[in-house]
Design a protein that fits this description.
Blueprint (H helix, E strand, L loop, with lengths): L4 E3 L8 H17 L10 E4 L1 H10 L3 H9 L9 H13 L5 H18 L5 E7 L15 E5 L2 H13 L4 H9 L9 E7 L7 E6 L10 E8 L3 H5 L5 E6 L10 E5 L5 E5 L1 H5 L4 H4 E5 L2 H4 L6 H18 L3 E7 L6 E8 L11 E9 L3 E8 L3 E8 L14 E4 L7 H4 L4 E4 L7 H9 L2 E4 L4 H4 L5 E5 L5 E6 L3 E8 L9 E5 L6 H4 L6 E6 H9 L3 H5 L7 H11 L5 H20 L3 E5 L5 H5 L21 H4 L5 H17 L5 E5 L5 H13 L11 E5 L2 H5 L1 H4 L5 E4 L1 H9 L17 H16 L3 E5 L2 H4 L1 H10 L3 E4 L4 H23 L1
Parallel strand pairs: 16-17, 17-18, 18-19, 23-24, 23-30, 24-25, 25-26, 26-27, 27-28, 28-29, 29-30
Antiparallel strand pairs: 1-2, 2-5, 3-4, 3-5, 6-7, 6-12, 7-8, 8-9, 10-11, 12-13, 14-22, 15-19, 15-21, 16-20, 20-21
């Protein structure tokens, strides 16, 4: 017997043929995950039986076939005309009495449960939508804030017609779905009043890299259309899934979006069912709301926990929509579908690395997606109606995209938008079709000329860059399955948190060097003492810059502490549980002075390279308060976030007395060696470090050789001096002897020792020397890793051969 409606508590994932993927998922969650605390708004689905009977009642099947037979399936030149005729036909039909009665029955059931003063969302759910291999969301229409039974009937009717939107027709053809085999179900769901609060999306993995240990939560004020369409730059939160519920703070990253617009219901939608674009309006977000996060930490963690539960239940990565009700203050899950990019890929065995060499002038930048570089002609389009102007492989430049753009996005060599975040429509589609993209540029349509030759680079971190002309770059394909891992530990040098998830797949034993000053320079930008003593800043422009960066922090030092902690946590989480050795700040005084607000707090030195730097700064009155902030950030990472794989390293320690002084100071700030497994390392970069390695080993768990500084100070040659470039020789016998001495003493006293630098990858004989000395680890920049591994393997094979010969 045919069933026209099914309530959510009657629907499961096996009902896709009857209610489509969207409704099947909602019913599945409502039935099985509500008991785990996940809130899903109740509702019912109008089934595919009802849809087929609607077509038969109005004798539409043959008429639709006739109209669609005229479609140009090669170039889709008449797509708009054909789609319009199909929709007009569908809207001319009538619901038969039984269907109308059943919709009224569902309406009365929900109003009896929740009161008359409620509104509904009527969402289209095609029977071929939201499948793992076919999940382009937004092909059909949804109607929000629907009030009253008459408006609900109209909304359901228009959902039927939306099965023949231009984009939906082309999507079915592209994916091989016969329209005669695709029905439409309508989900009628209680409306979450996110217009009075906020809404967004989340992924149960990192959508850019596929890194599985984090959940990404993104959103903006008001209804979710702004987030999906990319009309605003969203707030974004990364949560480390393994630690949810186990540590005080599982959020490892927060990014404040501008959220310039807030989408709410129009007055028209309150009284009548109108077209989706007329039901909602965008209002300017008040400045105070733009400058604060949409969710509390507890709410972010709650959503991420739900994402994990949903992922575990479905046994796959998920793309989830959430909403917060501004009336009740409660969070809800309003949709969950399989993630379709990384879930379809086999386990990654290859890694492609791009290195840009020569590039033109920077035009604009935004959020980069795709980890690639491409050059081509720019094509500025204002709407999908101009699709004929875009030649295959050209770079599409537009304000933002929505599902109407889907038919042409596959043609683009790259996509650049003014608006949008990592979870916007343009970002999602770019990932699905494998296209390089930059979203949220802010000004691409104003700064890039139509027809201009440009280069798009998303291979330089999370920021994507657009350059004038055709750049030159190298591409390296790495087959990870064929890499022979040496016995000597191979580690990475990394200072860019945005690259951590990407590089975590490379063969490594962790991070041998994370430079804190890189984080301070790029993610913080402000001198820590200028934050601690903001009242001493008299320069109006400097004050304005600091206020602009720190506006969402009540206490300015918290800006430094939280930003440093989160950047470190990003890297530590990417490589967890492997060691991540974080070197405390090692700017020279002139480099510190160049930070925002830095000049009043730094001395003027003739030779900063051997001046006020490293450990000497940490206990000095000019910097000790800033070092305390560094310690607070590292304590937050290890204690609050639980990332105890972070080890701490002191640079430029001139003597043992200085080491003892700084270690004591760190212990006072809650970073005591041995507590919760905390290990302390020291850079070996001054001759005294090697000469007194036995004494230093009493206070440190490991050493890391800084060969550049060690060479400079052994030979008395400024490493930055062109005049002394011939003298500066890392192979000088005095330098090599100090390195060998340090390794031997470290091995004798059971202290780990490694080296971070370029030489072992550039010079096979240097790698051979280190292996023969018995070094524990060598750390490389990612672009030097493969050559470094090759040199270490050759050195180890040679040593093994020598050992065998000696035994014989």
């Amino acid at each position: 017997m045919k069933t026209y409606i099914k309530y959510f508590d009657e629907i499961g994932i096996n009902d896709i043929p009857q209610v489509g993927g969207k409704n099947a998922s909602l019913g599945e969650m409502y039935q099985n995950l509500s008991s785990k605390g996940i809130a899903v708004p109740n509702g019912f689905a109008i089934t595919s039986d009802a849809y087929w009977d609607f077509l038969d009642h109005n004798d539409f099947r043959s008429q639709l076939s006739t109209i669609l037979s005229f479609l140009d399936t090669d170039n889709f030149s008449n797509l708009q005309e054909v789609g319009k005729k199909c929709r007009q036909l569908m809207l001319s039909g009538l619901f038969h009495q039984k269907l109308e009665d059943k919709i009224k029955e569902g309406y009365e059931y929900l109003t009896n449960q929740n009161g008359e003063n409620i509104s509904f969302a009527a969402r289209s759910s095609a029977t071929a939508e939201d499948l793992p291999n076919a999940s382009f969301a937004g092909q059909q229409e949804s109607y929000l804030n629907v009030r009253g039974i008459e408006n609900l009937l109209k909304a359901c009717h228009r959902c039927y017609a939306s099965l023949f939107t231009d984009r939906a027709i082309k999507y079915r053809i592209d994916n091989g779905f016969d329209y005669n085999k695709v029905a439409l179900s309508v989900g009628v769901q209680l409306m979450v009043r996110s217009d009075k609060a906020c809404s967004g999306v989340m992924f149960s993995l990192d959508p850019d890299t596929g890194f599985e240990k984090v959940a990404l939560v993104a959103g903006a004020w008001g209804l979710g259309e702004n987030v999906v369409q990319g009309s605003v730059n969203t707030d974004e939160f990364l949560v480390f899934k393994p630690f949810i519920g186990k540590v005080r703070q599982a959020i490892i990253s927060r990014k404040l979006g501008t959220k310039e617009k807030t989408m709410i219901y129009s007055r028209k939608s309150v009284h009548d069912i109108v077209r989706p674009e007329e039901a909602i309006i965008n209002t300017n977000t008040p400045l105070d709301q733009q400058q604060r996060f949409i969710l509390s930490d507890d709410e972010v963690t709650q959503l991420a926990e739900w994402a994990v539960l949903i992922e575990q239940y479905y046994k796959r990565h998920m793309d989830i929509e959430w909403a917060k009700d501004g009336t009740s203050g409660k969070l809800f899950i309003v949709q969950a579908r399989p993630e379709t990019v990384h879930s379809q890929k086999a386990k990654k065995t290859s890694f492609k690395e791009y290195t840009i060499k020569e590039k033109g002038k920077l035009i604009c930048k935004g959020i980069g997606l795709g980890n690639s570089i491409i050059s081509g002609r720019a094509r500025l389009l204002r709407s999908p109606s101009e699709m004929d102007k875009l030649a295959k492989g050209e770079i599409l430049i537009t304000g933002r995209t929505d599902p109407d753009w889907d038919p042409i996005l596959k043609k683009a060599g790259a996509i650049i938008t003014d608006q949008g975040g990592r979870t916007s429509h343009a970002a999602i589609v770019a990932r699905e079709v494998g296209t390089t993209a930059i979203v949220g540029s802010g000004n691409a349509t104003r700064t890039i000329k139509d027809g201009q030759l440009i280069t798009v680079s998303t291979a330089e971190g999370n920021t994507g860059y657009v350059y004038v002309g055709e750049a030159s770059w190298d591409e390296t394909e790495i087959d990870l399955s064929r890499i022979e891992v040496p016995q000597t530990d191979v580690m990475l040098i990394l200072g860019h948190p945005d690259m951590a998830f990407k590089y975590a797949v490379l063969p490594n034993k962790g991070i041998g060097l994370m430079r804190m000053e890189f984080i301070i320079n790029n993610a913080i930008q402000i001198h820590p003492m200028a934050l601690r003593h903001f009242e001493k800043i008299t320069d109006k422009e400097v004050r304005r810059q600091i206020e602009g960066l720190t506006h969402h922090y009540i206490d300015k030092p918290d800006y430094f502490i939280h930003r440093l902690a989160e950047a470190t946590a990003n890297i530590a989480a990417a490589f967890y549980p492997k060691d991540v050795i974080v070197r405390m700040s090692d700017f020279k005084s002139n480099e510190y002075a160049n930070l925002i607000g830095g000049h009043p707090f730094e001395p003027k030195e003739q030779n900063p390279m051997i001046g006020f730097r490293g450990a000497s700064r940490y206990y000095h009155p000019l910097y000790s308060e800033a070092f305390e902030m560094e310690c607070e950030a590292m304590k937050m990472v290890r204690e609050d976030m639980g990332l105890t794989n972070v080890k701490l390293m002191l640079p430029f320690v001139r003597n043992v007395a200085e080491a003892k002084k700084v270690i004591k100071l760190m212990a006072k700030k809650g970073l005591k060696r041995g507590v919760d497994g905390l290990q302390l390392y020291m850079m070996v970069e001054i001759p005294s470090n090697a000469l007194l390695a036995e004494e230093f080993s009493k206070y440190f768990d490991g050493f890391s050789i800084g060969s550049n500084d060690l060479t400079q100070l052994t030979l008395g040659a400024d490493r930055d001096s062109e005049l002394l470039s011939e003298v500066f020789d890392p192979f000088d016998p005095a330098v090599m002897q100090l390195i060998k001495m340090a390794i031997e003493k470290a091995n004798k006293h059971g202290v780990k020792i490694g080296l971070c630098g370029q030489a072992p990858s550039d010079y096979p004989e240097y790698a051979k020397f280190l292996v023969e000395c018995g070094i524990d680890s060598i750390s490389f920049n990612p672009d030097a890793l493969l050559k470094g591994i090759e040199n270490i393997n050759a050195a180890e094979r040679n040593q093994l051969k020598q050992n065998i010969n000696n035994e014989v």
